[in-house]
């Protein structure tokens, strides 16, 4: 099996119709979202959800985000407290996932939530949103990569990794945000950050007037079971906070500060020459993959500021650099 790739700029309506048909057959479809490409399937169909886990090689205790077309649809499946509703109004559609109490018997299958009594919900932008509306049911969608690999930000990334396991990949161009959604959970009036992502924590604080609490260590891992340490792992080793390049390393740099030994680098990738964190996030996964593809045994990465989207970038880089089994 080799996936058909349909480009939405050329065949928008055909892409929508074909994606609906494949989803209706209980098969997953790789789709563009503003964050990363997702591997989407009918969140109410257990056979379809099982195929997501099989295709990714993903552990079944790791729940999936359920994607909705609008707030009305989301409210059929989950209970909103006032703060979560405020966050939904401020950031949806967009790169924010809310962990909410699941409405019993709502129709989302327990395989999508890994049997939890909560559900992760997000309203994506663009083609994904149109597809959910046309299909009429929520789509469970993890990132469209083999479990443990870097998330895809283009249809070509998906095709390289999963092309022979899928029937359909929808090509919507480069994902504009480039890192996955921010995941938060509101409990007893407290906003807890389970995964930094495409909405900066500072923006959430500004919209609510509340402090965002970071979960640390094992608690965060249990809360968002996908946040295992050695995730986003490229083949090459990753060396963080580099101020110089060693012979044969590939270099991923940020900003205009000079890097000693840059002439020794096997290849140089500049996340954002002007020091723009949004541009750096959009380039991050593609450059990690390209740096890996140079065959360099190690990738050196210069420091990235830890505010705004830098928090998500540094989180993903720390996972890419984490020791492997
Ligand atoms: O931007 C994104 O969020 C992308 C696009 C495709 O929407 N999706 C994505 O999905 O990154 P995935 O499966 O790679 O990451 C989802 C994370 C996992 O860490 C999972 O454990 C967590 O969300 N999660 C899902 N449902 C949860 C729940 N009910 N409680 C706690 N964590 C949950
Ligand atoms: Mg993922």
Set down the secondary structure blueprint.
Elements: E1 4-7, H1 12-24, E2 29-31, E3 38-42, H2 46-56, E4 65-67, H3 71-77, H4 82-91, E5 96-101, E6 118-122, H5 127-135, E7 139-140, H6 155-162, E8 168-171, E9 182-187, E10 190-195, H7 201-208, E11 212-214, H8 217-223, E12 237-239, E13 250-253, E14 267-270, H9 277-293, E15 298-301, H10 310-321
Parallel strand pairs: 1-8, 4-6, 5-9, 10-11, 12-15, 13-14, 13-15
Antiparallel strand pairs: 2-3, 3-7, 4-7, 5-6, 9-10
Helix pairs in contact: 1-5
Bound molecules: threonylcarbamoyladenylate (TXA) and magnesium ion.
Fraction in helix: 25-40%
The Cα radius of gyration reads 19 Å
Distance between the termini: 31 Å
Shape: globular
Bound molecules: threonylcarbamoyladenylate, magnesium ion
Task: Give me the side-by-side strand order of the main sheet.
Answer: 2-3-7-4-6-5-9-10-11
> How much beta, percentage-wise?
15-25%
- In total, the number of strands is 15
Helix-strand topology string: EHEEHEHHEEHEHEEEHEHEEEHEH
List segments where confidence is low: pLDDT < 50 over at least 5 consecutive residues.
Answer: 218-223
Note the main sheet.
9 strands, mixed
User: Counting H and I runs of at least 4 residues, what is the number of helices?
Assistant: 10
The structural class is alpha/beta
Average residue pLDDT: 94
């Amino acid at each position: 099996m080799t996936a058909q790739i349909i480009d939405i700029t050329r065949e928008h309506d055909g892409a929508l119709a074909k994606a609906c048909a494949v989803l209706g057959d209980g098969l997953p479809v790789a789709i563009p979202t503003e964050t990363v490409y997702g591997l989407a399937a009918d969140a109410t169909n257990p056979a379809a959800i099982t195929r997501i886990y099989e295709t990714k090689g993903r552990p079944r205790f790791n729940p999936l985000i359920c994607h909705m077309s609008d707030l009305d649809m989301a409210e059929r499946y989950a209970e909103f407290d006032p703060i979560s509703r405020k966050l939904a109004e401020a950031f949806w559609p967009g790169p924010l996932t809310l962990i909410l109490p699941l409405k019993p018997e709502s129709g989302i299958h327990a395989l999508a939530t890994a049997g939890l009594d909560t559900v992760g919900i997000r309203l994506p932008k663009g083609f994904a949103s149109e597809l959910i509306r046309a299909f009429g049911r929520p789509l469970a969608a993890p990132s469209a990569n083999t479990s443990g690999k870097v998330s895809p930000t283009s249809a070509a990334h998906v095709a390289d990794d999963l092309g022979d396991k899928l029937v359909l990949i929808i090509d919507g161009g480069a994902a504009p945000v480039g890192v996955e959604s921010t995941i938060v959970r509101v409990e007893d009036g407290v906003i807890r950050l389970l995964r930094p992502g495409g909405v900066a924590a500072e923006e959430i604080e500004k919209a609510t007037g509340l402090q965002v609490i970071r979960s640390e260590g094992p608690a965060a891992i249990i809360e968002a079971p996908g946040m295992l340490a050695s995730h986003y792992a490229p083949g090459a080793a990753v060396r963080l906070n580099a101020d110089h390049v060693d012979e044969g390393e590939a270099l991923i740099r940020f900003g205009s500060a000079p890097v000693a030994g840059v002439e020794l680098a096997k290849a140089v990738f500049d996340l954002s020459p002007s020091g723009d964190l949004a541009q750096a996030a959009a380039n991050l996964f593609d450059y990690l993959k390209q740096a890996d593809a140079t065959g360099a045994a190690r990738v050196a990465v210069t420091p990235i500021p830890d505010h705004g989207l830098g928090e998500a970038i540094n989180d993903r880089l720390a996972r890419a650099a984490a020791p492997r089994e």
